[in-house]
Amino acid sequence: MNAEVSKRSAALTTPLISRTDGGASKSRSGSNSKSEGSDEEKQAVLTTQATVSAPEITTKMSKQGLPDSAKLLIGAGGVYAAFLYYGSLQEDVFRYVSADGNSFKQAWFLQVLEALANVVIGFAGMQLMGPTKNIPLPMFAISGASQVTAKACTSLALANGLSFPVATLAKSGKMAPVMAGSLLLGGATYSVREYVQVAMIIGGTAVVSMGKKKGGSQSNSALGVAYIIGSLVLDGVTAGFQKRLKAETAKAGVKPKPYDFMFWTNLFMCGTAVVVALALGEFTSGLAYCASNPEILPMIVKFSLCSAVGQSFIFYTIANFDPLVLSTVTTTRKIFSVLLSIFMKGHSLSVTGWSGIGLACAGIVSELQAKASAQKKSRNQ
Hints:
Number of strands: 0
Helix content: over 70%
Order of helices and strands: HHHHHHHHHHHHHHH
């Protein structure tokens, strides 16, 4: 048992970097690190770049005294419950139509509330764990601004007619812009399998979009696609900022804890969202919409809380298991979110649409399997 704990603790001393549907990431020679998970999960994993020492983890695990099966049930169950409900609420918010026929469009206002919930939880966790001093805040500001803009673009895609299953599958292809940027700017190389995996996810998403029953505004649908592409591009940009953030923390000689990252990143995300929401008039219009339609307010509040609670469960899973476990949880969660939306929200797919679902999910699972094989190979070396 002690050997097993030591092995796990040693694995967790590796910095967890990425850019998480909402997962974990890996580092490979000659290429950028991959990110898994949806926006909300990715944010948690990206903020968990702290290096946790083996004694800390060993002590923490010994204090908990729970068997691994119970810890996995708590961690995975919390991630599933929080983020499945999060995705469902996000779809409900943007599908809501008021009595006068208006729908909720204030994506930046929503980001303010979501980030604020994460700031509160992050601050509480940071006080419990102890804050880290001398953190390089300028890179947190840049990273936070990039992340919240990517999340806002995803919400705007939903607000402008893109269905939740298509948006979720499209976001699973976030490695495409990362690969493109690395190839053009970084000289990275990728295997044929990686190209095929990305092609399967993107191709499957396109097939799902074409296989959906016709309906809605063509212009809105086109605008939704444009926003999701913008979100994917920002995923690639943020990956570069995260690498610089890691380098800056290492240069400063500090090892921020998970809740340090959660608090500071979300604080700058909230600040960015407030500025943009005020500039666009979404702050007042969002408050007015909620006041006129009080039934949507509980959805928004629960949506924000699910994001913060879900990130805490991700931190718990990271602290007790290696990154592959978290990657498996968040990847399968993403697939279940798509299926749950299709069956529970009235989406109607043709045979072509279902074949696209299968193709995209196969690409996602293949990526996960490749990661598992690489980790196993690394351990055997």
